């Protein structure tokens, strides 16, 4: 039985009051480790360390920051498969997905290590002969970052990378359900020689930690990935302290499938994207709108592919889709299916929990789910998809945008004009045409409407942790 420790001021430590919490394997429902429960005393220690770390780290040149970050990247690469196994044990996703996620985490950190040297300012045209104007970029200050359980490596990696590249210190609070993966990322930076206090790791009671950290005058920036409801609460706390925030919140992604694509191939591609991480992805394709001419072929192929998915323990190499991450998601899936059927939707396949230890739920496909169903109004965040037909372009655009969310949207078409039109019509922060990849290290990821604001990734991901300072210098004496 291992213990996932706190990391404060360069030291691994248990809780100051000895409290711990259970970390459960979602494939078996067995307790696999204990996590240290951070007390307010521990949080105050982390805040003091972050303040000290910020003053030290901001003075390190961007080139030296980049060099140390690349060293940590090399450490992570050497431990990639070991960390992937930890991720599968605590989160449930397949080993292949966990290894792939580690690759994405490493790529994001590598990108930000390079981007550290590109926090450019600019020279402004002078208005008078003896006045010089320029703008410089500086790190905003200590950061409080909150990451969810669905991507235990990728999301912390983005936040750590952006903050450290900019010259900020950071206190990371991962999900209490998946803290061990984040700890291994922190360990890589520790082993690479990151100065004490620059990166700190805490976990415990989520509401208490977020309130204590965000209310502290030491924290000048927050970064949160998670549900819209929790994000709105954190924004209230940030607003009270006039603190900048990056919010990557919920999604409810539409997919518009036009009749100029091969329906069988499109359906197979769609199921593969939907089953990723058992649908527990904020950008997961969920609402499929299929043009009438290929509707039946797409629907039948989608259902056939969904029924063939091998669901099981993520440690089994033959598994294609692992369990849900916790019992809450199972209950949510069951409630959404029951609600949709009560409203006369048609169940095409799945719809129930698999009777075995672990949080397993069948890949579920529903047809003609009404607009007022829970599944249409709330983010399913599980292996659940709805399919319905369309024939009118304007109407399908209205349907696609008819949620409070606006994170990701997808379209499949061989027509360049259709692709351009639907890309402009989608109310979403990221759009993918003929594929389901919406984010790379070089591209910004962020949403609109209730899906949040601000970006992670790309040059925008660095800028999120920088302030712009305008400097006007009046020259002394005659020219």
Structural class: alpha/beta
CATH homologous superfamily identity of the largest domain:
Aldehyde Dehydrogenase, Chain A, domain 1
Q: How many strands in all?
A: 21
Looking at the structure, the CATH topology of the largest domain is Aldehyde Dehydrogenase, Chain A, domain 1
Radius of gyration: 24 Å
Number of helices, counting only DSSP H or I runs of 4 residues or more: 15
What's the mean pLDDT score?
97
Write down the domain tally: 2
Features:
479 residues, six-stranded mixed sheet, 39% helix, globular, Aldehyde Dehydrogenase, Chain A, domain 2, alpha/beta, Aldehyde Dehydrogenase, Chain A, domain 1, seven-stranded mixed sheet
Please give a structural write-up:
The protein is of the alpha/beta class. It folds into two domains: 2-249 and 447-470, Aldehyde Dehydrogenase, Chain A, domain 1 (3-Layer(aba) Sandwich); 253-433, Aldehyde Dehydrogenase, Chain A, domain 2 (3-Layer(aba) Sandwich). It is 39% helix and 21% strand. The chain contains 15 helices and 21 strands. It has helices at residues 40-57, 62-78, 80-91, 95-115, 154-166, 179-192, 206-215, 228-240, 263-274, 295-307, 327-342, 374-377, 393-400, 416-425, 458-463; strands spanning 2-4, 6-8, 11-13, 20-25, 30-36, 122-124, 131-139, 143-146, 170-173, 199-201, 221-225, 244-248, 253-257, 285-291, 346-349, 364-367, 384-390, 408-412, 430-433, 452-453, 466-474. The strands form five sheets. It has a seven-stranded mixed beta sheet with strand order 15-16-17-14-13-18-19, sandwiched between helices. A six-stranded mixed beta sheet has the order 10-9-8-11-12-20, sandwiched between helices. Helix 2 packs across helix 6 (179-192) and helix 3 (80-91) packs across helix 4. The protein is globular, with a radius of gyration of 24 Å. The chain starts with a strand and ends in a 5-residue tail after the last strand. The relative contact order is 0.14.
């Amino acid at each position: 039985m291992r213990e996932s420790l706190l990391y404060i001021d360069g030291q691994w430590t248990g809780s100051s009051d000895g409290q711990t919490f259970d970390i459960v394997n979602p494939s078996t429902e067995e307790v696999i480790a204990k996590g240290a429960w951070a007390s307010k005393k521990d949080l105050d220690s982390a805040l003091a360390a972050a303040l000290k770390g910020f003053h030290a780290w901001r003075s390190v040149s961007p080139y030296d920051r980049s060099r140390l970050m690349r060293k940590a990247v090399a450490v992570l690469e050497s431990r990639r498969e070991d960390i992937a196994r930890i991720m599968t044990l605590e989160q449930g996703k397949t080993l292949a997905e966990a290894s792939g996620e580690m690759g994405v985490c490493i790529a994001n950190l590598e990108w930000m290590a390079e981007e550290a040297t590109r926090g450019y300012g600019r020279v402004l045209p002078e208005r008078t002969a003896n006045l010089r104007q320029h703008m410089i970029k500086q790190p905003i200050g200590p950061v409080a970052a909150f990451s969810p359980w669905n991507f235990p490596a990728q999301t912390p990696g983005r936040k750590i990378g952006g903050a450290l590249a900019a010259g900020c210190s950071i206190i990371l609070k991962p999900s209490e359900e998946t803290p061990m993966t984040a700890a291994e990322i922190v360990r890589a930076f520790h082993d690479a020689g990151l100065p004490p206090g620059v990166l700190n790791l805490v976990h415990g009671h989520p509401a208490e930690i977020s309130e204590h950290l965000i209310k502290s005058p030491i924290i000048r920036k927050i970064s949160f990935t998670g549900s819209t409801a929790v994000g709105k609460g954190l924004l209230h706390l940030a607003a009270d302290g006039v603190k900048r925030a990056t919010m990557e919140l919920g999604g409810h992604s539409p997919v518009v499938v036009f009749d100029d694509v091969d329906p069988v191939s499109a359906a197979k591609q769609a199921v593969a994207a939907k089953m990723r991480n058992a649908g527990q992805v904020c950008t997961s394709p969920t609402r499929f709108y299929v043009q009438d001419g290929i509707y039946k072929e797409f629907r039948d192929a989608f259902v056939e592919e969904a029924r063939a998915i091998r669901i099981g323990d993520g440690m089994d190499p033959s598994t294609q889709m692992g369990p849900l991450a916790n019992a809450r998601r199972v209950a949510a899936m069951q409630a959404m299916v029951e609600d949709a059927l009560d409203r006369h939707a048609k169940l095409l396949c799945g719809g129930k929990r698999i009777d075995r230890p672990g949080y397993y739920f069948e890949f579920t496909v529903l047809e003609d789910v009404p607009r007022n169903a829970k599944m249409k109004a709330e983010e399913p965040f599980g292996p659940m998809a709805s399919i319905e037909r369309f024939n009118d372009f304007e109407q399908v655009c209205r349907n696609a945008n008819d949620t409070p969310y606006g994170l990701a949207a997808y379209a499949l078409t061989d027509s360049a004009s259709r692709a351009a039109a639907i890309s402009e019509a989608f109310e979403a922060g990221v759009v993918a045409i003929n594929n389901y990849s919406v984010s790379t290290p070089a591209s910004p990821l962020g949403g609109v409407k209730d899906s949040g604001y601000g970006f992670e990734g790309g040059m925008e991901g660095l800028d999120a942790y920088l302030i712009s300072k305008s400097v006007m210098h009046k020259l002394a004496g005659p020219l």
